[in-house]
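Batch 3, record 17
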Amino acid sequence: EVQLVESGGDLVQPGGSLRLSCVGSGLTLSVFWMNWVRQVPGRGLEWVANINPDGSLKRCVDSVGGRCSVSRDNAGNSVSLYLDTLRVEDTAKYYCVAWSTTAYWGQGVLVTVSS
Amino acid sequence: EVVLTQSPLSLPVPLGQPASISCRSSQRLVSSNGATDFAWIHQRPGQPPRRLIYAVSHRDRGVPDRFSGTGSDSDFTLSITRVEAEDVGVYYCMQHSFWPHTFGQGTNLEIK
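Prediction for the assembled complex:
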């Protein structure tokens, strides 16, 4: 069975940082563009970051800009998202998404930024 | 940033009837390699999203053939020939021709 399992979600104070991880099983992540998409509860979807298969191209959306870093470990079949200087508006469920001619989504992990 | 505008935002449909959702882009979605990187995403209540259609018209594995995607340039449509109960939820169009990748606002399909 193909699975993407995210971890690292937590309640964090504003200004704090967090690393989210995503591990694949039943699929080889090295052939996929790996992505992070977030969703504020009850709201729509926002593409946060992505990284190409060999890790040479990494991008974060402007709303997280320099506070964001995405990386991958193809040998470990995993990808990570690091968010710094967290804001209340970063509160959301974060999904790991493997994207190619097939696409797989994880179940998501909740990040809550609150004092 | 590419803005995707969906219509309608709410779509009540009787079981067995057809449905369609429109998505209009603020610019042509043909990328530098000539591809149109446009997809449709479905999210059932309480579930993670799932891709239904990629590259405008290609159904993902396991997606019933009652779903079809059409369109080009900046105008796209998702059609369902006969709505079934499992089709409820929110449908999003999205583009990954240009960074940042963007989603439409979502269309909530419910059974009338």
